[in-house]
Amino acid sequence: MPDFPALTPHDDLRAFIARCFRSCGMTETNAEQAAGLMARADLIGQDGHGVFRLPQYIRRIQAGGLDVNAQFRTVEERAATALIDGGNGLGHLVMNHATQLAMEKARTTGVAWVGARHSNHAGPASLYAAMPAEEDMIGIYVAVGSANHMPPWGGTEMLLSTNPISIALPSTNNPPIILDMATTVAAYGKVKTAAQRGETMPEGWMIDKNGQPLTDPNRASEGFLLPIGGPKGYGLSLIFGILAGTLNGAAFGREVVDFNADSETTTNTGHFVIALDIKAFADPAQFKSDIDKIWQEMKSSPRLPGFDSIRLPGERLAQVTQERSEHGIPLPATLLAVLNTLAQDLGVAPL
Amino acid sequence: MPDFPALTPHDDLRAFIARCFRSCGMTETNAEQAAGLMARADLIGQDGHGVFRLPQYIRRIQAGGLDVNAQFRTVEERAATALIDGGNGLGHLVMNHATQLAMEKARTTGVAWVGARHSNHAGPASLYAAMPAEEDMIGIYVAVGSANHMPPWGGTEMLLSTNPISIALPSTNNPPIILDMATTVAAYGKVKTAAQRGETMPEGWMIDKNGQPLTDPNRASEGFLLPIGGPKGYGLSLIFGILAGTLNGAAFGREVVDFNADSETTTNTGHFVIALDIKAFADPAQFKSDIDKIWQEMKSSPRLPGFDSIRLPGERLAQVTQERSEHGIPLPATLLAVLNTLAQDLGVAPL
Q1: How far apart, in whole angstroms, are the C-alpha atoms of residue B331 and residue B50?
Q2: Angle between helices A10-23 and A333-346 (to 10 degrees)
Q3: For residue B70, how far is the Cα from the chain centroid?
Q4: What is the tally of helices (H) and strands (E) in chain A?
Q5: Which of A82, A314, B96, B203 fits a disulfide with B213 by CB distance 3.0 to 4.6 angstroms?
């Protein structure tokens, strides 16, 4: 039977996630905030980082591997920096707190860099980069990925993760430019999707332990992801991992816990966010109008054969967000069934 | 006749560059500083960004396209940010000033972001990222490249440059980890080198206007460089270009002047540097010892067939620096001849 998606209104999805979290003892305020960010991941088209992850988060909460009402503590603080200990809380709550703090500081100092440790998976990177962009700031977010899928360049031991970066820049008449990328050619979620669909992966996504192309996604556990640009992507993953992990006293390298396989061990996930106040460099109205001009310049430039349009990072995100705001979020029937079984287990109303 | 390299002591090279600049009216202090940074580019193995560029810089100075004794002006300033107008000075001098200012600010605020406009080519990116790393800080440097060689993804108009990023992290017993990468698969200098050597380029470096692989480096002007990771590298180049260019009121997109082809027009080159004080997050001794552990963890991990060792970014740079400090900098005979002709024209002692 085909996996027909059900179109779920965004508000319904948010309310569902909130009642699941509340049933696990999360406060009303935390549950609303966490649900808002998770449902937003689905709204913007980041299907692998939204409600899809809820059963896994709940499993971790029930196994004692995540504190639903963790208290955050500022471990170090300067005028333009802070290090937050997330107390093993949900990454969304930790990084929302960190991002708000970075924005508050940047309003005075011009820029702020806030790191976090003892956090957890926080959903798609763009959530946190986009927050400053809504207030005439530029946002940058980097995380240590929640499982290692990549060796150093030339190696076979998976010491590195996809360590993503997101950067968001506001405009006036166009969507914000939002880059949200893994440092690997393919994110691990794309490998899982290929396996589910019975598809072959293109060469260049993964290699096996002998360095040969691995194209059968069912053999993914025998190989590893490849970095973008070979040693360059390895360098980016390594350094982003150190900045988001090691510098904050968070896990990196062999310390990283595979949160897909293990729901009990504290992950000590690290992230950082930078907020840069546009006003400290330029008139925000002028800057945003410059970004509009860049949209125009790129999109109107001549194209290669076979390309219908030139896209800017964030364009597809904006289109999907509008579609799903109007028509609802497509949840595959299998996912819907999993979520409603979860609801039953938690004793809350289904979707 | 083969192009045997002459081994030139680093100090001799620095003194030579300084006297060339002095002969063009540059002050003693500026000439020493600029020569120190340019000779350092050769010392660390960045041959395409060191003394090799001197004739081009001098041509620009003589054509009135660069002010040897430009006054720098702080256009905007906050506790943790500044925007510097470089007055069309040499990029090395502008960015040395910007980096020192960023470090000074970061000592108090924890982090600082200093942008520059009306600057020029500043040599290799790692020069400026490495400065904070010598003082228990982390350095990040990004520039708008000085000529466009890449279209947006799917396009054919070269609106983007290689826009490099460098990030440097200090350690105790190992060299600093220093990433210094273009956002293209190959830097344009590598294309020129392939042409000089009569070599073919591998597929993946460049494509032509029909989207077909371009492997003959003599046809480079008919095609363009490819970004790392396809649309990901395009996104990085676009966003780094906006942050280093547009945000600072510097050139981006169609405004970028090809400084190889045009020595007269003001380039309005933009860059930015971030200094992050390690002490604002961790004990620097502990952090640097953590970086040593990461060196050890990566280098001792098992290898793919065909790899003799696993390298860290900055490892080769440190090896070359040591070799060249001991034995001198290899300058090809053709380059030496060009430099000594330049010396004759300027009326200064040759190398």
Answers
A1: 11
A2: 30
A3: 21
A4: 10, 11
A5: B203
Q: Does A4 touch chain B (CB under 8 A)?
A: no
> CB A211 to CB B248 under 8 A?
no
* Identity of the residue numbered B30: N
What's phi and psi for A5, nearest 5 deg? -80, 140
Tell me which chain B residue has its CA closest to the CA of residue A112: B111
pTM over 0.95: yes
What six digits make up the tokens of B118?
């009306």
| CA distance, residue B9 to nearest chain A CA (Å) | 31
Tokens of A210: 């002998």
Alpha helices in chain A (DSSP H): 10-23, 28-43, 54-62, 91-109, 126-133, 188-197, 231-244, 284-299, 315-327, 333-346
Residue B312 pLDDT grade (very low, low, confident, very high; cuts 50, 70, 90): very high
Identify the helix (H) or strand (E) that includes residue B17.
helix B10-23
CA distance A131 to A110: 16
pLDDT interval class at B1 (50, 70, 90): very low
- Ordered by where they begin, the domains of chain B are 1-62+317-351 (1.10.1530.10), 70-184+227-292 (3.30.1370.60)
Using CA atoms, how far apart are residues A254 and A246, in angstroms rounded to an integer? 12
Q: Do A294 and B242 touch (CB under 8 A)?
A: yes
Q: Which residues contact A169 (CB under 8 A, 6 or more apart)?
A: A133, A138, A176, A177, A178, A291, B239, B242, B243
Give residue B193's pLDDT band: very low, low, confident or very high (50, 70, 90): confident
Q: Which of A132, A84, A163, A144 is nearest to A274 (CA)?
A: A132
Strands B177-181 and B206-208, sheet pairing: unpaired
**Per-residue H/E/C for B56-89:** HHHHHHHCCCCCCCCCCEEEEECCCEEEEECCCC
Is the pLDDT score of A196 beyond 90?
no
CA A119-A122-A124 angle, to 5 degrees, is 155
B322 to B11, B214, B291, B292, B317: CA distances (angstroms): 14, 37, 21, 19, 9
End-to-end CA distance of chain B: 21
Considering only CB atoms, B302 lies closest to which of A108, A157, A238, namely: A157
For residue A253, give the DSSP letter: G
pLDDT tens per residue across span A49-73: 999 999 999 999 999 999 999 999 9
Phi and psi at B63, nearest 5°, equal -85, 0
The pairing of beta strand A111-119 with beta strand A81-85: parallel
